[in-house]
Request: fold
Amino acid sequence: MASSEDQKRKAAEAALAFVKPGMVLGLGTGSTARHFLDGVARLVQRGMDLKGVPTSFATAEVAKELGIPLTSLEDRTPPDLCVDGADEVDPKLDLIKGLGGALLREKIVAAASKKFVVIVDESKLVSRLGSKVPVPVEVHPFGWRFAADALETLGATVELRLKDGEIFRTDNGNHIVDARFRSLPSPAKTATQIMSIPGVVGHGLFLKMADTVLVGTEKGVRTLRAARKPTRTS
Reply:
């Protein structure tokens, strides 16, 4: 039986087929994305001309250690391809991301990229968003409680994210509150409501953004493609 880690590795290896010489790559954050970084490093070591735009400080550090040349969105060269993991994927290829805490930068890089490929193991597939994980919401430290209360009025149970007993801080210096909804009948409506709350900086609903989802399974890799044209504006 293939472990979850093996399935992640399979999906990441399959994503390397999308990488072409000369590309600027959006480099995701998390354990699945780490497998993709290892693959990109091998391509660089073999002489392929590639540059990466990291979605977190942690990814930037790993990429440097692996010898992957880095650039930024400020260089005005949009990434050709962004590859990242996800915490949930529904049948429409809408996503929840952000359990790793890098949701804002991940969304910016994915939106800026020409193509967004998501790599997951099959445990991340759900019939509806919010089935297994909460929606991470990045909030400014000033008045975060107000934002949390507002999320509760939308029907969510809200918890301030901690790490090692301290309030978790994103790379942007913000807090994250995890909002668990009983149901999300209209993720797009909920996304709009969340962003209307003063103090909210971003959220983990990635809607109509993914072009392709590569799912690592025991038998290999399933390729799921979006039935609609991704907007990358959610």
Observations:
- The two ends are 37 Å apart (CA to CA).
- The helical segments are 4-15, 31-45, 57-66, 103-112, 144-153, 187-195.
- Residues 56 and 102 are 6 Å apart (CA to CA).
